[in-house]
């Protein structure tokens, strides 16, 4: 059976362990022995005793772990973004896009609110705001694929040009 280290303990148990280790060192136990007895690293023991000496015992308290749950975009900023995206095209807001893409929203948030977020985060925002990717309802049946392909390359083939 493999022994678990202190990282597998709950935050409150980790906090209690830190208090016990620092208390043992303050009462005369050598740091390396405290590390062996309490099954933590010597570096951790040194860090805990050093921060306790400079900051106090409040440095040993358990802190909230993980990614913050709140959005970096404030509620009034989100409301403004949604309203502008519903009422205006990116081109009207002096953005170099014709449609609202994730990249367009990303640039809009950066320029308008000085907020740098990833494209993935923008996608989560758009999903939260009920903006979904749209597909055309139908495809034009008279569309000539060769002509469209040529137009994408900005050249008109001789046999398809008028005149």
Question: Quick recap of the structure?
Answer:
This protein is mainly α and 163 residues long.
Structural class by SSE content: mainly alpha
The number of helical runs is: 7
| Major sheet description | none
Overall pLDDT metric: 86
Percent in strands: under 5%
Query: Residue share in helices?
Result: 40-55%
Shape assignment: elongated
In words, what does this structure look like?
This protein has about 160 residues and is mainly α. The chain is built from seven helices and no strands. The longest helix has 16 residues, at about 10-25. The protein is elongated. The mean pLDDT is about 85.
List the helices and strands and how they pair.
Layout: H1 11-26, H2 31-38, H3 42-54, H4 75-87, H5 102-113, H6 119-128, H7 145-152
Helix pairs in contact: 1-2, 1-3, 2-3, 5-6
What are the key terms here?
mainly alpha, single chain, 163 residues, 0% strand, 7 helices
